[in-house]
Structure formats: structure tokens, C-alpha cells
Amino acid sequence: MASTSTDLLPRGCQIFTSVPDLFFIPEFVFGGLVWILVASTLVVPDNPLGWVMFVSVFCFVMTTLWFFIFACGANQGGIWPALDVFYHFIAVVMYLSASVALAQVTLSLGSVQLFTPSFLKMYRLDIAAVLAT
């Protein structure tokens, strides 16, 4: 009698061979990039940019934790596929809302006519952060 594998999700090095799990790499890169770009500018106004920072830090930490859970193979229970879909859905909604908030702040800053070199640098960093989200 041959044994069959009933693994629902990849584990260990197999996470680098499946298409959905390869998206861990862009999540690390772009999540960290948004975090760095927003943190390097003045956080004005506090409320929308605070949300953007929370989303980028939260999703970066959770993706790292999620990656290690998958790499260690602790994701082989029956509920893990549903949790995987749920986490990525929540991450998409949070990143989309952060992107909209950051774009609104960047557009409002663009209407200011004081384009000093330091302001222009922060404005360009905000534009890059919008594109990265």
C-alpha cells in the first residue's frame, strides 16, 4: 500500500516552488520599502500617515511570522488554508486603504506651492511610497 501525501500547504523549501507562496518575497520587499519610505519623511498629518505606518509594520511582521510558520511546516492542519486566505485578504484590504490614505495626503501636499528642496524630497518619497503600496 503506497502512502500518499495529504499536505494541504507546502512546507520547508517547498514554499519557494509554489506560485502563491512565492508572493512572500514581494511582500517582504514592498512592505519593508513602504515602511522605510514613509518613516523617512515628516509624518504630517499624523492620522493618515500613522495608519500607513501601522499597516506597513503590522503586515511586514505578520508576513515574516507567516513565512516562518510555513517554512517550519507548522501549517499542515485543516484550518491553515482558510487562515492563509483570510490573512492575505485582510492584508490586501489594509494595504489598499493605506495606499488610498497615502495618495490623498500626497495629493494635498502637492497643492502647496512651497517647493523647497527639502519639501520636494519628502514629496518624492511620498510618491514612491504610494507606488510601492
UniProtKB/TrEMBL annotation:
Keywords: Lipoprotein, Membrane, Transmembrane, Transmembrane helix. Residues 15-133 form the MARVEL domain. Belongs to the MAL family. Signal peptide: none annotated. One of its GO terms (cellular component) is membrane. This is Myelin and lymphocyte protein. It comes from Muraenolepis orangiensis (Patagonian moray cod). Pfam families: MARVEL. PROSITE patterns: MARVEL (PS51225). It is a multi-pass membrane protein. It is found in: Membrane. It comes from the Eukaryota. The chain crosses the membrane at residues 21-43, 49-73, 85-107. InterPro entries: MAL, Marvel, MARVEL-CKLF_proteins. GO terms for molecular function: structural constituent of myelin sheath. One of its GO terms (biological process) is myelination.
